[in-house]
Design a protein that fits this description.
This protein has about 290 residues and is an alpha+beta fold. It has two domains: about 100 residues, Signal recognition particle alu RNA binding heterodimer, srp9/1 (2-Layer Sandwich); about 130 residues, Signal recognition particle alu RNA binding heterodimer, srp9/1 (2-Layer Sandwich). About 20% of the residues lie in helices and about 35% in strands. It has six helices and 15 strands. The chain has an eight-stranded mixed sheet with strand order 6-7-8-5-9-12-11-10, covered by helices on one side.
Length: about 290
């Protein structure tokens, strides 16, 4: 069962983007999950009154959330989404690549690489990064869509440290790790060329950038993690939050710069309470009894 959810910050384009991704991505569908209330909004949110707040996108059964918001943030390649295709799905891979490339930019051209017979990395027209990859080994749909964290800029060469930390705080389990083995431009010999770990049943990839980057993690792509009860919210929040000024409405930034949304498992139910949205705006860490 999916627990970790990737959230994408859309600059007022969440519904449009949801429809775009539903057409572009394999076995995808979308729907508006929640809307902004018509009152009780902060001044900068007033243009969104009654409009979509969150749009759900399912790709092969994996949920991704599009957040309808302002111009404050934009996704970047520090967190991308990997979509794995089995060997007999090359036509689907190529069609997905063509759709995502429309209005976007190829970061690594669709081609043959030592690690995959068919691979490409694209930044789409909304700024979201996708890595499309053909696998020789069969991959189940549930395990074929997952986020990849690239540690560059201020977080360069901290992938090993991050995985160990997420193991302590969130129970992450390392599945595989491939160090560079020798210094490679920005990467040290011990830095990770690629690694995979799991959070619950959810796969996450991590890597240290091989080349210097002028960007790093930001709230344009955040990771949503649900907690059962206030005590678990308190524990995770205390362990992860490293930038007090970034705390708002359940959002925090950890010591690597990764943005997280730490929410109650019954968040949907809580948001149905009268005045819940207005109450949430007043919180930093979410307090269940204050909804």
């Amino acid at each position: 069962m999916q627990k970790l959810t990737v959230n994408l910050w859309m600059q007022g384009t969440a519904e449009e983007a949801g429809e775009f991704y539903a057409r572009a991505l394999p076995e995808a569908k979308t729907e508006v999950e929640s809307r902004y209330p018509t009152e009780g909004l902060l001044e900068f949110q007033e243009p969104f009154a009654g409009k979509a707040l969150t749009v759900s996108l399912w790709v092969r059964g994996t949920k991704i959330t599009l957040i309808n918001a302002g111009q404050e943030f934009m996704p970047n390649p520090a967190i991308s989404i990997i979509v794995v295709f089995n060997a007999g799905q090359r036509e689907s891979l190529d069609a997905t690549w063509a759709a995502l490339l429309e209005g976007g930019t190829a970061l690594m051209p669709l081609d043959t690489y030592p690690f995959s017979a068919r691979y490409g990395w694209v930044n789409d027209k909304y700024g979201v990064s996708w890595q499309l990859m053909e696998s020789d080994e069969p991959v189940e749909p549930r395990a074929s869509v997952f986020p990849a964290l690239m540690f560059g800029g201020a977080a360069q060469n901290r992938a090993v440290e991050a995985i160990e930390y997420y193991s302590q705080v969130l129970g992450a389990k390392l599945d595989s790790a491939f160090p560079y083995g020798e210094p490679t431009e920005a990467a040290t010999a011990e830095a990770l060329m690629y690694a995979q770990f799991t959070l619950g049943e959810d796969c996450v990839a991590a890597m240290d950038s091989a080349v210097p980057q002028d960007f790093t993690f930001n709230p344009g792509v955040s990771l949503e993690w649900p907690c059962d009860g206030q005590a678990e919210i308190d524990r995770v929040w205390e362990a992860l939050s490293a930038v007090p000024e970034a705390e708002a409405c359940g959002w925090l930034t950890d010591k690597f710069g990764v943005s997280w949304q730490i929410v109650p498992s019954n968040m949907g139910e809580l948001m149905e309470r009268p005045g819940a949205f207005e109450h949430m705006l007043k919180m930093k860490k979410l307090v269940i009894n204050d909804f």
